[in-house]
Amino acid sequence: MMNIETRQAYSEVNQFLKLIGEKKSNKIPFKLRKFFEREMDKNYIPTIDANIPIKEQKLKRKTIAIIAGLNLQYWCKEDEKQKLLEIYFNNENKYKKELQEKYNPNDIFKKNIKSAEEDTTSTENMQLSLVEEDKWYKKILKKISNFFKKRK
User: Fold this and answer.
1) Residues 6+ apart with CB under 8 A from 81
2) How far apart are CA 14 and CA 60, in angstroms?
3) Number of separate helices (H) and strands (E) present in the chain
4) HSE-up (13 A, CA, CB side) for residue 29
5) What is the pLDDT of residues 50-75, one digit of tens each?
6) pTM for the complete prediction?
7) Nearest 5°: phi and psi at 130?
């Protein structure tokens, strides 16, 4: 089952295809256009202004990805495709590098080791205070002796 965000993205793509005109829209296979139309969220009304550049529109991330894919597959010339593929490849590598730096397993373990070392140093500084408590039979003897002292 498809989630709501994907269906809304299909609605935005469908609206975008209507705005770009028949000539460009017809470059996309009929089955794919019908797929977007069939799977879109019928209750979601996208707001796309033809006078505002696509970068400045408040479109969903999935919509932009789909439009970028359509552009690459159906609207670009061969020399433009190569340039776009290089850009996409570089962006993907940057993204992977950022993820690697952010979630590097070696660094995560180093952070855990540092925090564990801090925990051990803080516990070493703490000392337990020993509270001496009388044994049970001494308590009973004290109560008995206190009882007799009060009677005198």
Assistant:
1) 72
2) 13
3) 7, 0
4) 4
5) 888 888 889 999 999 999 999 999 99
6) 0.62
7) -95, 120
